[in-house]
Amino acid sequence: MIRCKPLLGTFVEISVTQEDGHIAIENAFTAIQHVHDLMGFHNPKSELSEINLRAHTQAVEIHPWTAQVIRIAKEVHLESMGLFNCGIGHRLVAAGLLPQHITFANHDLGGIEDIHFLAPDLIQSSRPVCLDLGGIAKGFAVDMAVRVLISEGITSGLVNAGGDMRVFGNTSFPIQIRHPETPEELIEIGLLKDGAIATSSLYFAKRDHQKSHIINPLAQHCSEVHAEVLGSFSILAKECVYADALTKVLALSNNEHHPCFSRFSAQALRIAA
């Protein structure tokens, strides 16, 4: 049984091996929608927008799912030596890739390292921030959908959110990655069983005359912020939230053996342009 819905700025496909999985699939889509409602940058009333607006002036109580994503983001930021940082929302706003809800002087803005937990679900920022969780929340949404499916008795299947994919159970699924030079061509890399994969690339940025959405948070000059990476960068991991975040580390480091991959039991796959 396969169902597909537009969510998370892409199309989300859920496939299960059982024919009586209608309710479980709908509940999985509900979980994905909840992640989108909490952490979507485009919604000025989302919890993420509230963090960006108020966290530097007062403590903000957040949903446990948002707290979990922020904790993982801080962990990956630390292990990647700063290559992964969600505090790049203002860069994407300036490039016209995200809407502008608030105005901060760029030199005043902090990053994910400035978010501090006062309690399990209570945070405050030591500096103004413009967080964008788009580089990690999609993977988290996939994981939450899988959790729902398993809790409702689904024994195997997959959730695919625009290339952020997780397979669970005893069934293997073929994995295809777009060719970085000719995105309409698919490269089959093998079968995936009980794991996750995510891919980052600039497949259509040049075609659409857009700036790169892969931001280098360590860039010293404005001209180097939008990383013009070549090729496609995929990460295989146990959970999709880590696969999603670590693709940015691979794309920016261009190092398939970056030490943080082993820290999260992940494997890197780079397809050269």
Topology:
Elements: E1 2-7, E2 10-16, H1 22-39, H2 47-54, E3 60-61, H3 64-79, H4 89-94, E4 115-119, E5 122-125, H5 137-151, E6 157-161, E7 164-168, E8 173-178, E9 186-192, E10 195-201, E11 232-237, H6 240-253, H7 259-263, E12 267-271
Antiparallel strand pairs: 1-2, 2-6, 3-5, 4-5, 6-7, 7-10, 8-9, 10-11, 11-12
Report on the structure:
With 273 residues, the protein is an alpha+beta fold. The chain has a domain at 156-271: T-fold (Roll), CATH 3.10.520.10. 30% of the residues lie in helices and 24% in strands. It contains seven helices and twelve strands. It has helices spanning 22-39, 47-54, 64-79, 89-94, 137-151, 240-253, 259-263; strands at 2-7, 10-16, 60-61, 115-119, 122-125, 157-161, 164-168, 173-178, 186-192, 195-201, 232-237, 267-271. The strands form three sheets. The protein has a seven-stranded antiparallel sheet with strand order 1-2-6-7-10-11-12. Strands 3-5-4 form a three-stranded antiparallel sheet, with helices on one face.
Can you summarize this structure?
By secondary structure, the chain is of the alpha+beta class. 30% of the residues lie in helices and 24% in strands. The chain is built from seven helices and twelve strands.
